[in-house]
Structures are given as C-alpha cells and as structure tokens.
Predict the structure.
Amino acid sequence: MENKQYLSDGIIGLEDLASFNSVPTTERLREKRPVAMIECIQEIPCNSCVVACKLGAIEMARVNDVPRVDYDKCTGCMACAMVCPGLAVFVLREGDGGGYVTLPYEFLPVPKTGDQVIALNRTGTVLGKSRVARVLPPERNDGTALVTIEVPKELLLEARAIRPGEQ
Amino acid sequence: MMTIDGVPNVRTCMVNVKEGINVSRQNGFPSADHDLLSLMDKMGFYFSLASGFYHRKMIHPSFLRQTYLRILTRFVGLGHLPAKDSISKAESSKVSMEADVLVIGGGPAGLTATLEAAKRCSKVVLLDDKRMLGGQLVKQTHRFFGDARHYAGVRGIRIAKKLTEQINGLQNITTVLGCDVFGIYNGHIVAAAQENRLLKIHAKKIIIATGAYERTLVFENNDLPGVYGAGGVQTLMNTYSVKPGERALVVGSGNVGLILSYQLLQAGVNVVGIVEALPRIGGYLVHAAKVRRQGVEILTSHTVVKAIGRKRVQGAIIAKIDNSFKPIPGTNRKIECDLICIAVGLTPTYELASHAGAQLQLVPELGGFVARRTRYMEVSDGVYVAGDVSGIEEATTAMLEGQIVGVHASLKAGLGLAGDEEQLEAWIKRLDDERSGPFGEKIRRGLENIMLPGEMKIGEQAVS
C-alpha cells in the first residue's frame, strides 16, 4: 500500500477524498435533494452500503473495492449511512443560508432536535456551536443515531463529528 | 493469578462469583498493599538483579541449588497446592458421549460450524470454556464489515445472539459450557474437564475452533494493575458494564486497538492517545478516522516504554522509535493515564491441533504457529481447524471457515446433503473474494506455504 499521510495519522483530508472522486460537486450540494458523501477510500472487504442502496447509486465491482457514488442517482435517503459499519457516510444538503450535515452518532446522551452541540472537524478540532435540526433516534437504527446539524455552508465539507454542548 | 477455594493459580477474571467463595492472594507479604518484597523494586539497582538473574547467580555451591530454588519459587508467588484433607469432597464423575461432529470453541467459527453440522448430522456436540456462547462476538458492539450477504452492517453481539438462539433451538446439538478440553487422542477421542466432571467424547469428526490468545508487550512495570489486555477491557465494559478507568492509553492501532479506543470513548473514558510501533496505522482507515474526529491522536512509530505508578498505573512514558523499533533518546514523553490497554495482536491457540496430529508451522503472517491444512481446513484425518486458530483474521472469515468445515466434516462422515459440494466451492470462492484486497494480502501470503495438496486420506496424518 502507498505511503499516504492519512495512513499514519488517520486524518482523511478533503484533497484525499477529492482524488477518489468522493466529494459531491457544489452544484449537486445545492440541489433540493440531499446527497451522500462516503469517506471510505481504502480497499477493505465491505459492501454493506452497496447492498443497502435501493437506487443502485453506489458502484462497487468487487467487495474489496472503494465505493463510488453516482451523485445523480443518489437522493440522500440515508440507507447507506444507516448501515455503514465504518460510520463513514455523511449526508449533505445546502439549504437557504446554511448547510445540513447528517452524521452517525453512537454516544450518550443522544442529542434532541433543537439542542446546541459543538461541531468538530476530521481531526476533532472545534469548529463552533451548531443546532441539531433532526435526529433519527438510536432505537430506530440498531443503536446508531443519525444526527442532522446546521452548519454555515462553508463548513458543509468540514463538520464531521459533534460533541455535547454546554446546556 | 489467585488462590480460589484452596486451588492456586486460578485466573480470577474467568471465575463467576458465588456465595461463600474464598479468594486469596498468593503473592506479596504481609499483604498485597504492603508487600515487603516491593522494596526489591527500589533496591534492584544495588543488587543489579536483571530479569533471569537466577540463571547466573545463586547457583553455587551446587548442593544449595535446590534450597535456593525453593526459596526463589516462594518469592515468585506460584501459590501452594492445597493440603490433602482440604480438597473439596464434592463428587466427581465421568461422562462418556458420542458425536458425529464435535466442535471445540463456541466463537464465530465454532457456532457456524456447529449449525452446518447440525443440519446434516444426528448428534453434534459443542464445547466451550466460557459460561456463554459467542466467544469474542459477545463484546463486539460495533457493526461488522464484510459481504452484506454475510452479516456486514450487523453488530457482533447480535450475531452471537442469533447464532446462539439457533443452536439452543436444535435438539441434536448438545452444548457443554465451562468446560476445558485438554486432549485429543487417536484422532477421535476428546477429553475435557468441567468442574468435577470428566468428559470423554468419541467423535467421528472434530472441529477445533479455539481462537487465539492476546499477545502482550514487554515494557517496564507492565505488571502494574491498570495495564490490561484489550480483550479484558472489552469484557469489563461491554460484557459486565464496568468502566475500567478514566484516562486510557491504547497501545496498538490494529482494528482491535482502534475499535477498543472507540468503545472506551463510548463508555465515557478519555482516550489520551493511541501509540503504534509501525510507521502506519494497522487497522481500517475508517476506524481510525472515527476516533480521530473525536480528537484522539494516533502516534505512529511510537511505543510505550514504561508504566508509572506504585500500586497502580498513574501514567506512562512513551517514546518515538526508529526503524529497528528502538526508542530514540530524547523523545520520551510522559502521559497522564490510569489505564494502559495492550492491543498488539493475537496468536493462534495451536495446541489441540498439534495434539491431534497436525503438522505445525510458524507463519508470522498468520500470527504464529498454525496447522498445515487442506483447502477444506482438514489438518489430519477427521480433524479440522476454523477461525483464528487457523490464522489470525476477521470474524467474518471465521464464520465462513466454520461453515466450510461444518459441511465438509459432515460430508466425510457420510452425512452430507445433495448440493454440498457446490456449496463448499461457493463458500471457498467467497472466502477468496474477502481476502482479495490489500488487507488480505498478508493472509494470502501466509496461506501459500501451509496448504496441503489434495484431500486428506482416511487414516492420514499431516505428520510425516
């Protein structure tokens, strides 16, 4: 395997993702339908997202290949985000004024709609406060909650984790 | 190691608490808290007692050697055998059983092997040393990777529950828990002990699915309370809901180390860092990214050189290491933590396979000594291996191997079903697919050297 920086620090950078065509275009992000961004650029034996996608929007010839999303077919339905064992699927949408990032969350307490949380980037650095717009509770998805947070649209491709905010 | 009800050297972590149990220390005088011999830790410098010193010192004059040995052995804390009249008078019994297929080990490989065999045979026996089935699956709270037709996206604990329910629902499976297998004789007689019961099982075919041991790491003070193996920490948190500490340092960035770090975070433990001796992360990048975005730093080309603390871990010294894994002077760094979790890999439990006549080979790519086998995982006539015992890999591949051996053992016992041969080929193909990526490269390389050509003939042993 190649000697990429992410293999020694665990930080998958935006440019790494771009080199695998794993970043939806700005135009696509602006569409009404949300879109899945799969941050899975290493060849590992897993195809759960492909099988979960009912639209055939994720391509993978062999189980060890990297998934490729057809952003035109993808409707952002979150089926892949719900099952991904690597918690590597983020569903994005750019709305009026702000951006919405849906991310998998497996910690307690589970945030509720309207809560203030702290948004973090891929290195765990604090980006700022964020409001929870929607929550798919963990009991509806075998323990993995899907939390949608509101972020400024320039952070749509940056905010990738949350931690509870001071109440 | 402690003395339980008079029996020395018991792994207390494996014993269920019961009314009236008598647990006592077997090392440290006058007590574990105030151990006089702990002075030696401080004075060792004056005596220059390096480990293994007794091979060179205290051996002269020769007539005193036995006396030295007796005294030194007491210091080591091996415990004392119980006095004859204090041994429990509980009744012991011998049980004899028969099985078409006998499976040793109820982890992912053993469970699927048992189920496949039970679809074909009238009598299947499953033995496990734990109090519940599932093996390592019972602490795997994360979703599995793999082929979606084969449990990908499902949590390990759910798989354990599902397979265990299926097994408990079948009348032709006899499950014996809390039972240690200590020998395989003549290739078809399995001897096991379950408390005061001795089991002798005649089996037409034997499947060994005993998994692996955790490797450990040598560093100063690695025997301080607070230094744990990754599996032990997972058992505490995920099986018994006990928070093991407040600040954890994880050693090893394979999938076990990464998943453990994530589970520690879920349990509310602050993970202060993950150190990895190799220059790159060993496990899946997605697992690494998952802990990294919670702010956990992964330090490659680093190792732990010392645990700090007197009675329990209060910190650790880590250092950067060079290409030959030697700490680089001047790079020592102190980390505040009360928990050091060792996740530096596993090594197969090859002993029973060896006892059954399999030919062993040291294959570093597979984690240590493994048995040479046919493509159906047969290691000597009628004896099979499946799962980590055959080479360290993932639970998903272990389950596939279990299915393969379950079917092949039944077939060879003359109890196969129509279509079994095609089924076997399909599973072997799927196994090859799983291993076809870069993460399977090491496994493929390891397997190359240990495959026996053709099929095992009746009465054949791998030993030449």
About this structure: The mean pLDDT of chain A is 94.
